[in-house]
Amino acid sequence: MDDCIFCKIIKGDIPSYTVYEDDDVKAFLDITQVTPGHTLLVPKKHVADIFEYDETLAAAVFSKLPKIAKAIKAINGDIQGMNIVNNNGQVAYQSVFHSHIHLIPRYSSEDDFSMKFGDNSAVYGETQYEDVQKAIKANLKA
Predict the structure, then answer these.
(1) If DSSP codes are grouped into helix, strand and coil, which group holds residue 75?
(2) CB 29 within 8 A of CB 16
(3) pTM of the model as a whole
(4) Could you identify which of 9, 39, 75, 94 might form a hypothetical disulfide with 103, taking C-beta atoms 3.0 to 4.6 angstroms apart as the criterion?
(5) Helix (H, G, I), strand (E, B), or coil: what is residue 9?
(6) C-alpha atoms less than 13 angstroms from C-alpha of 82 in its C-beta half-sphere
(7) Which residues does the entry assign to the active site, renumbered to this chain (predicted)?
(8) Could you report the per-residue pLDDT of 99-125, keeping only the tens digit for each?
(9) Which of 38, 46, 98, 100 is catalytic?
(10) 46 carries an active-site annotation
């Protein structure tokens, strides 16, 4: 896409600090560096979000995660963990609409990054869980 910042980075029109690249993906340092080593993994094929992936593209992109994560972890003995985040849609905090995966090294619980998972289990009973389970299963494609 002509106006996509990640497509421009992939084509080399915008410089980046590339850490990995092959025929299918490009991984480069996120300019914000939420924590040192914060990296983005993007498919070279323009897809807006996970809902536009097929199995082949998913395999090509997601299979690179362990390799890149291990390389990031190896740069610093202080890395204690890593958040791997893929936001899909504006309501899910996606700000660039070219699919991308954040690899965010975690040095401590005091890093400049947080996630909050609410606990709504008190409003779910067996019937509600089963209804959601059945709805998802009914929509799975072979």
Answers:
(1) coil
(2) yes
(3) 0.93
(4) 39
(5) helix
(6) 24
(7) 100 (tele-amp-histidine intermediate)
(8) 999 999 999 999 989 999 999 999 999
(9) 100
(10) no
Owner of token pair 């005091």: 110
Cα–Cα distance measured from residue 83 to residue 85, given in angstroms and rounded to the nearest whole number? 6
Give the CA radius of gyration of the chain: 18
Q: Which two tokens stand for residue 26?
A: 């490009």
DSSP 83-136: EEE---SGGGT--SSS--EEEEEES-TTSS--------GGG--HHHHHHHHHHH
Is the confidence at residue 53, as pLDDT, over 90? Answer: yes
Instruction: Yes or no: say if 71 and 19 are a contact pair by the CB < 8 Å rule.
Output: yes
> What residue ranges define each of the domains in the chain, with the CATH number in brackets?
5-113 (3.30.428.10)
